[in-house]
Amino acid sequence: MALILTYLHRMETLMNEIYERIIDRLDFASVITLSGSSGAHRRRIHGMFMHDYNRLLRAFVIDPDSLRGLMRRTGSIIVGSAPLALIQRIRGTRPFESLEICTAIEFHEPVLRHLMDNEDFTLLKIQNVTDENGYGHSCNAAVSVIATLHGPPRSLPGTNPIVEVFASTESCAILPVLFSHTTVVMNWLGADSLTMLCPLLTLAKRGLINQRYAMDDNNPPALIPAAEATVAKYRAQGYDLQFEPYTWNISHRCTMSAICPHTARSVGDIGTLQLHFGSKAFIDSDVGTSEEDEIIWKLGGGACHGYDYATKGCYCKFVGDKKGPRSIAYPDGTEETV
Q1: CA 151 to CA 195: how far, in whole Å?
Q2: pTM here?
Q3: Distance (Å, rounded) from C-alpha 128 to C-alpha 137?
Q4: Are 105 and 167 in contact (CB under 8 A)?
Q5: Domain residue ranges of the chain, discontinuous segments joined by +
Q6: Which residue among 7, 51, 95, 196 is the one 20 to 30 A from 307 at the CA level?
Q7: pLDDT (tens digit, 9 = 90+) per residue, 206-243?
Q8: Pseudo-torsion of CA 63, 64, 66, 72, nearest 10°?
Q9: Strands 162-168 and 143-150
Q10: Helices H / strands E in the chain, number of each
Q11: What pLDDT, in 10s, does the model give residues 40-57?
Q12: pLDDT tens per residue across span 85-98
């Protein structure tokens, strides 16, 4: 242990170029562990993450600071491939096709206006994506409107960056994240932070499929057609996606473990990883939901192996006093104490 501490201390004094080369060879989990070893490592590593974040944004916008300022004011977040690129430590001029921004329903138009007025984007299409079955974009029931824009060439000559802006069905930008097809993409970038809702699975290249995208009366579960392409995309990237954790032979406490689909989770709980790499002054506004609108969620589904406990998924606000007994309010009017 003494040798490890000595080595970590000596690393703190390395020149930036050498330090960055070492960090570049580490995976995300190792980098996060190192950042927690001392204040000096934390400052240098968080600075490197912010540099990578801004470089990622510059592939799509001229002024990353202006976009992040807008995100800070509106509580908007970046979802999809962008946070996953930082987690996977993928480098490149533009490592994914489009930048996906999620907004509260009331801030959808101001975000579009910013992109068109300040970043020279052109609106290609805007549509209400909720169909008669209550499903929206790629059957995400928490998305009400989606706008697609393209801008002038940035870092790749001859190519136009694409930005998709999703409006939540409510005044909460993170709600569509909870309706994602798989836990692999239950992550987001705030103006000054990265949040992962299922880090234990994602960093192990595993993910649970959201049970709401399973076909009824299928045993074993099968995907509905609208979700097949998205799930196949992440399986092609090497993620092992399953409906239940017992497939991986992982022992866990049903309804208690953060990896259990029947556990009632909340944003910022013990199973969440939040990395703040910006100013401390902005941390409180960077979570994506206010303290008064705390969100509870769980994937639900069939009983875990060895347990006789099946539940339905939920994505909703806490009901009642958060310091006392709490309930989940389901759309059908029923409640469950958690």
Answers
A1: 27
A2: 0.84
A3: 9
A4: yes
A5: 2-337
A6: 196
A7: 999 888 787 765 666 778 787 888 889 899 989 999 88
A8: 170
A9: antiparallel
A10: 10, 15
A11: 888 888 888 888 899 889
A12: 888 876 655 667 88
